[in-house]
UniProtKB/TrEMBL annotation:
InterPro entries cross-referenced by the UniProt entry: PsdUridine_s_RsuA/RluB/E/F_cat, PsdUridine_synth_cat_dom_sf, PsdUridine_synth_RsuA/RluA, PsdUridine_synth_RsuA/RluB/E/F, PsdUridine_synth_RsuA/RluB_CS, RsuA_PseudoU_synthase, S4_RNA-bd, S4_RNA-bd_sf
Keywords from the named record: Isomerase, RNA-binding
PANTHER family, alphabetized: PSEUDOURIDINE SYNTHASE FAMILY PROTEIN-RELATED (PTHR47683), RNA-BINDING S4 DOMAIN-CONTAINING PROTEIN (PTHR47683:SF2)
Homology family: Belongs to the pseudouridine synthase RsuA family.
Enzyme Commission code: 5.4.99.-
Leader sequence residues: none
Acyltransferase recorded as keyword: no
Organism: Lactococcus nasutitermitis
rRNA-binding in keyword set: no
Protein name according to UniProt: Pseudouridine synthase
């Protein structure tokens, strides 16, 4: 396996960033500094980055139905519960692919494959993500229209989204809206609804590419098979 691919699979960095580390002389194989991008890593080789050993485990991929109240992180310096508390049976050194807010539930991917993570999270790859949002106010075609045109959030242009109004409660002045987005900026869905005057009260991600939460109760997870992983990779718009 080429050294840049080895580092990407180990979760050190994306393949492009790994190439930068190699060219900067920060990578060694069996104690010898490597600057050749085509250098091969053989079984049993010792690989280090900045003097720290790198282990390339067999790549694994999981789908977790994250409950509210968990941080999408490997650890938390404030002692809060993280999604890793739900994955304690797994021995591989996995981590979340992107994140869901503490108070957001739903579909979260976890893996130890750095290259896959980069492919799934970079905005240019456009993996569809579907959310169900309970919002304050009465959603309609007029106030939701800006979401379909491509908005600017904090100076950044985002892609047009698709929506479907699932429910309206005039007595409680609330609505339930399904929203499909193609990026994954920080707090993006909440910011989009806030920008059109519909603050989010409750949010859940129910689909990621072709993956859904079918058969996975809240707080549980399952391992993805090779076909599902391939479908996600094929959906990504690789430039």
């Amino acid at each position: 396996m080429r050294i840049n691919k080895f580092l990407a699979h180990a979760g050190v960095a994306s393949r492009r960033k790994a190439e930068e580390l190699i060219l900067a002389g920060r990578v060694s194989i069996n104690g010898a500094t490597v600057r050749e991008l085509g250098k091969q890593v053989e079984t049993g080789d010792s690989v280090e980055v900045n003097g720290v050993a790198v282990y390339n485990e067999e790549p694994v991929y999981f789908l977790l139905n994250k409950p509210r109240g968990y941080i999408s992180s490997v650890s938390d310096d404030k002692g809060r519960q993280t999604v890793m508390d739900l994955m304690q049976r797994e021995k591989a050194r996995i981590y979340p692919v992107g994140r869901l807010d503490w108070d957001t539930s739903g579909l979260l991917l976890l893996t130890n494959d750095g290259e896959f993570t980069n492919l799934m999270t970079h905005p240019r790859h456009g993996i569809d993500k579907v959310y169900i949002a309970k919002v304050e106010g009465q959603a309609n075609k007029i106030n939701l229209r800006p979401l379909t045109l491509g908005m600017k959030l904090e100076g950044k242009k985002i892609s047009p989204a698709q929506y479907e109004i699932l429910k309206q409660d005039k007595e409680k002045n609330s609505s339930v809206v399904q929203l499909t987005i193609h990026e994954g900026q920080n707090h993006q869905v909440k910011k989009m609804f806030a920008a059109v005057g519909l603050p989010v009260k409750k949010l859940s991600r129910v689909q990621y590419g072709t993956l859904t939460l079918d058969g996975v109760p809240s707080g549980k997870y399952r391992r993805l098979n090779k076909k599902e992983v391939s479908q996600l990779v094929n959906q990504a718009k690789i430039d």
